[in-house]
Request: fold
Amino acid sequence: MEASTAESAVAATLESNAPENPAAPFSLELSQDQKDIRDWVHGFAEGVVRPAAAEWDEREETPWPIISEAAKIGLYGFEGIAQFWGDETGLMLPIVNEELFWGDAGIGMAIMGTTLAVAGIFSSGTPEQLAEWVPQCFGTPDDPKVGSFCVSEPDAGSDVSSLRTRARYDEASDEWVLNGQKAWATNGGIAKVHVVVATVDQELGSRGQAAFVVPPDTKGLEMGTKVKKHGIRASHTADVFLDDCRIPGACLLGGKEKLEERLARAREGTSSRKQAAMSTFEASRPTVGAQALGIARAAYEYALDYAKERTQFGRAIIENQSIAFTLADMKLEIDAARLLVWRASWMGRRGMPFEAAEGSMSKLKAGEVAVWATERAIQILGGNGYTREYPVERMHRDAKIYTIFEGTSEIQRLVVSRAISGVHIR
Ligand SMILES: Cc1cc2nc3c(=O)[nH]c(=O)nc-3n(C[C@H](O)[C@H](O)[C@H](O)COP(=O)(O)OP(=O)(O)OC[C@H]3O[C@@H](n4cnc5c(N)ncnc54)[C@H](O)[C@@H]3O)c2cc1C
Reply:
């Protein structure tokens, strides 16, 4: 990995995203560089992540030593992420995610959860805000940190237009004052940098919201209950309380002038924010889909090997069509999902309009394939598959989150059906 300062990596990322540098044509033939990065991440997933997966799943704790190792080799940190994001085909980010989550999804999320906060800063922040906050989300290889992106609330999950967290501007001190409760925040309360979405003008619904950076050690931000989960248990999830949490005026992502212009447009009914938010989600969903693919592929490969070795009735169980055809279907579904993920990633990188909500399609398909394929893997392993002695049980628990977070499967279907029909389906 090339060494560069965080600031120059920020600049390089911005430059490589500029419209005069359009993305490469779509191709399934990976470049040597892409193959090298894929193999490098795979090596880390195989050698470091996978052997530690069961332990951290049982401990239900953030695997700091592994985050640290990822940071030392340049996989965790702004420079690595900037390089993956900067890839002009758009395929590098899903490839890296698939390989890492092939190793383990809980540890994968502990490593990649920070990119949610980074994406939040990236989608709304100014270049100066990016340069200031993104490197802080990651810390340094010797002292790694994590970031958290806090949108969901106890009463606002799928319906993010109903956020109750408020942001009030105090002109006298040039500070924003945040009050509210965030729910389900990945890295919530343990993050160095929290990116919080709050309502500035309640009457405008989601068009009256803005994103804020809450700097490290800000008074008034407290971690609530840490959630005990079904899967991805090495990834920390918790409520976050904001109680008269005062942050500098400059922590409003995008700046006050832009916010006021946006609010004025929304009040006049000429806001384009909904479309902007939609393309941001569409562009980030394939990466989440790629994580699900990593789990699905790991379960498929495990089940394939097992089916060749396990004998019943004097022959390997794979010699039965019912097992062999299941494995064929698993491979088929995983590859089909990957094509959707890669297409949407490439479209996002190229800035193409998502006319059929292709980003949502890819996350929906990959998430559901992961749940289905991991369940089939348990079936192929029989009783062994149902025990914690074999990894497919954990993979199935991990896979389930992919039909829930980053937009549930129902919400993805809503988005796709509205996009293809033009009808406001409920
Ligand atoms: C492990 C984990 C990590 C998370 N990390 C984060 C994070 O880092 N940051 C963050 O902000 N959030 C995070 N979330 C929150 C996550 O995004 C929400 O859980 C998700 O959006 C669903 O919201 P909800 O749980 O309130 O479910 P609800 O919105 O209450 O949905 C319940 C059910 O109703 C269905 N439903 C709701 N509305 C409709 C509709 N209009 N049509 C059809 N069906 C509908 C849903 O699909 C679902 O099946 C995380 C959640 C989990 C579990």
